[in-house]
Design goal:
Length: 396
């Protein structure tokens, strides 16, 4: 009994499979299929560019097409079997609405297209020369660095929508690190236009896709950096200069072996009146280059401008010089200030005892006189100013 049930189940499965094969092979039922990401072909773009304009962007670059037909035909359809077109010949600067035309292969019916119209933005077509900068891609050992000896061109012409061209800051020539050895190699480097963030700017044309780059893998070495500085305290300004103590250089192992120090050209800071950073100019032996990490060497110059301080004085602090015998001198009671200007380092150690105030009484006869004062300082200050021009001197 159990064996009869098993036989019946097997027979039922065989019948079901035969019937399903018959339906697929003979009946071939209708089905619906969606073909995705069919690219839009922009017709007459060359004619648009002949007028000095080009496509900046489009709201869509591909469409999804839903078709129907017999299963055997519909399931074999590929994106390349369709023609999807948008005519851009008559477009004008700015945004334009363009109808998308779709045609498909025989044997299927197009039921719907997810995009019937697109917005195409047109911009001015321009060409610009852009700098080429070689960049190394890949891993380089810490004690080594790729040195670019020569690149085939310094610039390349980039054409496209003005908005895109203005975004381009540089065109990268990418060199694979594993292709560079300790002997000079010349390789073809791919060119890529990038923006200020290093991201590729697409939909632009380069006058060439590659350039030849000659490069070599150098060793690196850290050595002492000597920076001679002059005129550090010129005028009434104090300047403190901070320089890097070491520098990283690169070259062949042989060239680096005898180098323990690199000197810079003399740094003259005499004309600097504000705190700033000043570029350094290292003097490099033949065959030696700065490592990338030591590019843009600079010294920090901190400037301290003239400082001021005031001291209080009275008539008792005034010295009378060139007195004559037989005469009595007295000074009218006064109080005044002396303002001292100079370098902060000097003023920090200054006190009133460093300042001498005198009045010359030579040839003064009996009576009341008003005499100018002479103010001096025993330390190197810039200027001395007093709030009292003249002092009253009585001679008897």
């Amino acid at each position: 009994m159990l064996e009869n049930k098993k036989v019946n189940i097997i027979l039922a499965l065989i019948v079901a499979i035969v019937l399903w094969a018959y339906v697929l092979g003979e009946v071939n039922p209708e089905t619906t299929v969606t073909v995705k990401d069919v690219p839009i072909n922009f017709l007459n773009q060359d004619m648009l560019e002949d007028t000095g304009y080009t496509i900046l962007s489009s709201s869509a670059y591909s469409v999804n097409i839903t078709i129907s037909g017999q299963r055997t035909a519909a399931t074999k359809v590929k994106p390349g079997d369709f023609t999807v077109a948008a005519d851009v010949e008559a477009l004008r600067p700015g945004e334009n609405t363009v109808r998308v035309f779709v045609s498909g292969p025989d044997g299927v019916k197009i039921e719907s297209v997810n995009v019937e119209k697109i917005t195409v933005t047109v911009d001015k077509l321009v060409s610009r020369e852009k700098e080429i900068k070689t960049e190394v891609s890949g891993v380089v050992e810490n004690d080594k660095e790729v040195y670019v000896v020569e690149q085939g061109s310094d610039t390349v012409t980039v054409s496209g929508a003005e908005t895109l061209i203005e975004k381009i800051t540089v065109v990268k020539a990418v060199v694979e690190a594993d292709k560079i050895g300790e002997s000079m190699e010349t390789i073809d480097a791919d060119l890529t236009a990038v923006d200020k963030n290093g991201l590729e700017v697409s939909n632009v044309k380069l006058s060439q896709d590659k350039i030849k780059v000659t490069a070599v893998l150098f060793n690196k070495k850290t050595v002492h950096l000597d920076v001679p500085v002059i005129n550090q305290n010129e005028g009434d300004i104090e300047r403190s200069v901070t320089c890097p103590k070491t520098v990283v250089i690169k070259g062949t192992e042989k060239d680096l072996s005898s180098i323990e120090k690199i000197s810079c050209r003399t740094l003259d800071v005499g004309g600097i009146t504000e705190t700033t950073s000043v570029p350094l100019e290292p003097v490099l032996p033949e065959g030696i280059q700065l490592a990338d990490e030591s590019n843009n060497l600079s010294a920090n110059v901190s400037v301290k401008t003239v400082s001021k301080v005031q001291f209080d004085f009275t008539d008792r602090d005034i010295q009378l010089i060139n007195r004559e015998d037989g005469l009595d001198y007295s000074i009218g009671k006064v109080s005044f200030k002396v303002e001292v200007s100079g370098k902060e380092s000097i003023l920090e150690t200054l006190d009133s005892s460093d300042i001498t105030i005198s009045a010359d009484v030579k040839n003064l006869g009996k009576g009341t006189h008003y005499v100018s004062m002479d103010v001096t300082c025993s330390k190197g200050v810039s200027s001395l100013k007093t709030t009292l021009d003249k002092v009253e001197i009585i001679v008897e």
